[in-house]
Amino acid sequence: MTERLYYRDSFQREFEASVVSCERDGDRWKVVLDRTAFYPTSGGQPHDIGALGEVEVVEVLDAEREAAPASTVVRDSDAAHEVVHYTSAALPVGPVQGKIDWKRRIDHMQQHTAQHLLSAAFVELFGFQTKSFHLGTLTSTIDLEAPAILPRHLEEAERRTNEIICEDREVVVRFGTAQELAEAGIRKKVEREGVLRAIDIEGFDRQPCGGTHLARTGQAGLLLTRKLERRGDLWRIEYVAGYRALAAARSDFAALTQTAAVMSCALPDVPAGVAKWSEERRAQHTAAKRMEERLARHEARELLAQNAATSPGISGSPEPARAIGATLEDASAAYLGLLAAKMVAEANVIALLASRAGGHVAFACAKGLDAGGGAVRDMGRLLREAVKDFGGKGGGSKDFAQGSVPNPGEVTSVIQRAQDLLSSK
């Protein structure tokens, strides 16, 4: 059994222990100590890292939970199971000094204690129970059971949480049976036997939990809710606290300041400015699409007229069919597709188009056109055959296909290759 020092003192950064066993496990070692301050992954909270002597501790797991789902409810240290420390090198059996990575530990303490506060606030204000908790690398989440969560629910719960933080209430670790804790008043009933560990936040929340926590709520600094989304029958709320909240606020302010500078407006005017810019952009996009349609229609007529007498016929076609090839200088893939569609609106036309700007290729044929060859009836197949010798890729349907070649300078050769294939059919 491993005595868990963090159960009673989450602020212990260094400790003395004895290595009980050390076994190789792939490219790392499994180390068991007689006592530890390292927290193992459990209950939505990640493990601590740090060092044992000069050896790095890269992961910490609860031997009991390696083969079972984690629980936020744990027994007192007297009934604890082994804690397994995964290290980067072997350690001899005997005395060793452990050192916790404090930056990671205090961050986890801030996020986890803030979670207790936020969950309790939702219960106090609206009766919404927390079903699960996850402490992530950048943000943390709680999943709530509620019929609906509105922006006002977030605002009120966030404000209430920060009120408790500002009041700097004491956070105490207590031990007792499930019955004793229930009689004392806990937020969520538990079905476990034996002595349990609970986190008691003065006059606000009492909840069984095995994680590391702050000594006072004021040490959480600040809590900010960041995102709300529906997840099946639950509502997921993303939040940050402590130094993470400071970093998020600083990042938000920097982004807002930069946006205001680009828009040449004051910070409070950014939302209105963005809304106006977005509306103008939509209007410009609509106008540009209309102009593009007119341009494609006009250019299609020009290409059809220019190639009326010079376009090669298609062997085996029951009626005269024209394969019109053209290479444009700066057309986008989308415009090529639009232009091809305009061209094949005329009967018995096959459009073979390319753009030197990006190496784009677009093939299309008039609906119902049957020139007698399999490649003619299938533009997807024709395009694949035309680009394969040039390292290109693409495909499509029987009537329309698009692709590209890595060297834009070879698009004219691709068009010629397609025309040769059509002529040979």
Structural overview:
This protein is of the alpha+beta class and 425 residues long. It folds into three domains: 3-100, Elongation Factor Tu (Ef-tu), domain 3, CATH 2.40.30.130; 105-260, Threonyl-tRNA Synthetase, Chain A, domain 2 (2-Layer Sandwich), CATH 3.30.980; 294-424, Diaminopimelate Epimerase, Chain A, domain 1 (Roll). Helices cover 34% and strands 28% of the residues. The chain is built from nine helices and 20 strands. The protein has helices at 102-126, 151-166, 178-184, 243-263, 270-306, 333-343, 374-377, 379-387, 411-424, and strands spanning 3-4, 14-25, 28-33, 35-36, 50-52, 55-62, 83-87, 94-100, 129-135, 140-145, 171-176, 196-201, 205-208, 223-231, 234-241, 322-328, 349-355, 360-365, 393-396, 400-404. It has a six-stranded antiparallel β-barrel with strand order 2-3-7-6-5-8. A five-stranded mixed sheet has the order 16-17-18-20-19, sandwiched between helices. The longest helix is centred in the C-terminal third of the chain and has 37 residues, at 270-306.
